[in-house]
Design a protein that fits this description.
Layout lengths: L5 H5 L1 H10 L7 E3 L7 E6 L3 E6 L2 H19 L7 E5 L9 E5 L4 E2 L7 H18 L4 H4 L13 H10 L5 H14 L10 E3 L8 E3 L5 E4 L6 E3 L13 H12 L3 H7 L3 H16 L19 H10 L18
Antiparallel strand pairs: 1-2, 2-3, 3-5, 4-5, 6-8, 7-10, 8-9
Helix pairs in contact: 4-8, 6-7, 10-11
Length: 324
């Protein structure tokens, strides 16, 4: 194995020690072609994946994943089987995790053909409904899974004003949009388990576009269901929402007839909040940026989506008449 990238070189001894312990020859140890910033990922042969956290915080997330994986697999959520999580540092001088390898492509790499993409969203919606059957009241507290995060549009908009990203007029207009969508914010009375990082690179699909696994549970937390519907570009939301509602037993058509667009309001609320929060992050300097890397990308995506005259309630939810 050639380990010439900064991450792999730093952990080369640990990788070789773990591989040897699991009977994997050096020639079958290959760094994954795409590396994240949190964990080093290495293929051990064709059936195992090694993950080594890069920081202490990442090690804590890896320990959380070990607990969450068992929970979601028991519920029927497709995710790679945990082979070993070792924080003892007896085999290597770092904590590590080994997972069964899932063979396929990520949603970010898949064929952009519309029918395949729609099939992916349909199966993803069904999987998220299965995941969201895991409720904190039934499971009880899990030490590694955080309590629901307290989102505050008032605080966020105040920070944006102080940072010079928006002015007082924009502050007041945006606060009105949050009020139109959900005056109190999405409900958290009975929080469910969230993946909380449902982005294209964490969704594995087969050649037909069917989702075969959700990856990376390091961000899992308790919260509101709509929080898991907003990780993809917002143009995917109608199809994902339709699949989610169908799997939940309530179609989008029946929601339209009954005027119950609570889930849609929640999703737009999170999209707007998270899009604005990105304006406070550092500017991306990566040469290999994804579509959302520019700080304003998701906000502009949101504005384009909600100004469209396409089908569905989305545009109307941001108008005062939608409160009736």
């Amino acid at each position: 194995m050639t380990m010439n990238a900064p991450g792999p070189t730093l952990f080369a001894d640990a990788v070789h020690a773990v591989a040897a312990h699991h009977g994997v020859r050096d020639k079958d140890v290959v760094p994954a072609p795409v590396q994240g910033q949190v964990n080093l990922t290495v293929f051990l042969g064709s059936e195992l994946v090694l993950r080594i956290p890069r920081t202490t915080g990442a090690a804590d997330k890896l320990a959380k994943e070990a607990q969450v994986i068992a929970l979601v697999r028991d519920a029927g959520v497709p995710t790679p089987e945990l082979v070993r999580h070792d924080s003892t540092r007896r085999i290597a001088d770092v904590p590590y995790m080994i997972l069964q390898r899932v063979h396929g492509a990520t949603m970010a790499e898949q064929d952009p053909e519309p029918m395949i993409h729609q099939r992916t969203l349909a199966s993803l919606g069904e999987i998220l409904v299965t995941l969201h059957q895991i409720k904190r009241k039934a499971v009880g507290p899990v030490s590694s899974i955080p309590e629901p995060f307290a989102f505050s549009p008032t605080e966020l908009l105040g920070e944006l004003v102080r940072a010079g990203e928006i002015g007082t007029a924009q502050h007041d207009w945006l606060l009105d949009r949050f009020t139109l969508l959900q005056p109190e914010g999405p409900p958290l009375a009975n929080p469910i388990l969230l993946h909380r990082d449902v982005i294209g690179s964490n969704v594995m699909v087969d050649r037909d576009g069917v989702v075969i696994a959700l990856l990376d549970w390091g961000c899992a937390e308790w919260g509101s269901p709509a929080r898991d519907l907003v990780g993809l570009p917002i143009r995917s939301l109608p199809d994902l929402m339709s699949a989610y509602r169908s799997a939940s037993g309530t179609s989008s058509a029946s929601a339209d007839r009954e005027g119950d667009h609570t889930l849609e309001r929640d999703a737009l609320w999170y999209h707007l909040y998270l899009s604005l929060a990105r304006l406070l992050k550092r500017r991306s300097t990566s040469e290999d940026r994804n579509w959302a890397a520019p700080r304003s990308a998701t906000l502009l995506d949101f504005l384009a989506f909600t100004s469209d005259t396409g089908p569905g309630p989305w545009r109307s939810l941001l108008h005062p008449t939608a409160l009736s």
